[in-house]
Amino acid sequence: MQDQVRNVYMDVPDRRVIRTADVYQTQTEIGTRGYSDKLLSIVADFKNSGVPEGCNAEGMAGKSKRGEVACQLFAVINPDTHVIEHIGFRSRGCLAMTGCASEICVLACGLTIEEALKLSPADVVRAVDGVPADKNDTPVFAVEALHAAIGDFLLANGGLEAVDRVAPCDQDAIDCLLCEHCSLRDLRIQWLVDHR
Fold first, then answer.
1. Which entry of 6, 83, 138, 144 is 20 to 30 Å from 113 by CA?
2. Four-residue CA torsion sign, 119, 115, 161, 72
3. What gap in Å lies between CA 161 and CA 4, rounded to an integer?
4. pTM
């Protein structure tokens, strides 16, 4: 019996797992099938994570079913020009969420809030050269987190009227329905409770 040694060593498949203060991969990737080279290069070399100094707007969107996938954005928006001067992110979930979160920051930086609100999930998909079919919600979360950050800024600098005028929420839209968690939705509800 002592001659028999249980073989506990197993070859572990190639896995890409990220654990940093700002990026926490909750879904272990086995291989990178379906990921574009551009998305993987963005994930390997992102430099815009975290909260920029002077942050005056933040937003979050995501879901919790079958593991949390979420994107938080933190922006410095000039109150006079409404230009997004700096923007950073935190993400949880998968490589696609990290890549989309990083890329929405690149796309939005330097835009006015009105221009940034025109960014779509399709713009993010193009910028990362595609996401795997089962990760199609990640560009939506990135864009919705941007909308939430802009909404947060507008609530602080004009109230709900400013949000409704510049960045109205369509809670029946497919993109909105995909987000189980949206900080702008929570902020709107809290605003209505506090001011009614």
1. 138
2. positive
3. 74
4. 0.86
